[in-house]
Design goal:
- 29% of the residues lie in helices and 24% in strands.
- It is an alpha+beta fold.
- It has a six-stranded antiparallel β-barrel.
- A hairpin with a 5-residue loop joins strand 3 and strand 4.
- Helix 2 runs antiparallel to helix 3.
- The longest helix is centred in the last third of the chain and has 18 residues.
- It is globular, with a radius of gyration of 18 Å.
- The chain starts with a helix and ends in a 10-residue tail after the last helix.
């Protein structure tokens, strides 16, 4: 577990820590310039038509999500377990934006079918039902979990968005913003 934590940290931050604390194993990892690594099954590229979901994202949560048809969901690799992911997305070959995605059954709502709900981190003028959504899932943020209230769920989603915002600036992930997949 300690190695996974270290592998996701920024090397500059780790170098600063090793100056202040004598941790030989950490110092050794920093010298090897440990970089972020991808979660099993990632990166995963998905493309499909945006369909109507449950209507909760924008109405109840104030966080509009785009939903894929079950055919796209069924193409997820087995290694991509339920949880919250981050990456990039575009609509109809438009601009590429950061995104977070919930994969799974959304325990707060007791969904009975697995879904992929994408929040594109951009303010759009209108919905995009029927348009083509392309995403690349690059990293895993956290497992799915249940919440005691809608407010707790919204707070968690906002935290996921903030985490994704930072992680997607790392070179290992940022380079995917210009991936040919988004212009094919």
């Amino acid at each position: 577990m300690q190695t996974a934590f270290v592998a996701t940290m920024n090397c500059t931050f780790l170098q600063e820590i090793t100056r202040k604390v004598d941790l030989p194993p950490l110092r050794k990892l920093v010298r090897r310039r440990v970089h972020m690594t991808f979660h099993k099954g990632l990166p995963h590229f998905a493309k499909g038509e945006v369909i109507k979901g449950f209507g909760r994202g924008s109405k109840e949560l104030g966080i509009p999500t785009a939903n894929y048809d079950v055919d796209v969901v069924n193409k997820l690799p087995d290694e991509v377990q339920p949880g919250i992911y981050f990456g990039f997305a575009n609509v109809d070959n438009g601009c590429v934006h950061k995104m977070v995605m919930s994969v799974g059954w959304n325990p707060f709502y007791n969904n009975t079918k697995k879904s992929m709900e994408t929040y594109v981190m951009h303010k759009f003028d209108s919905d995009f039902y029927g348009k083509t959504l392309k995403v690349v899932m690059l990293g895993y943020l956290r497992p799915e979990k249940n919440f005691a209230s809608v407010d707790e769920l919204i707070k968690a989603i906002n935290g996921d968005v903030a985490d994704a915002e930072i992680k997607l600036e790392a070179d290992e992930f940022a380079r995917f913003k210009n991936h040919p997949f988004f212009s094919e």
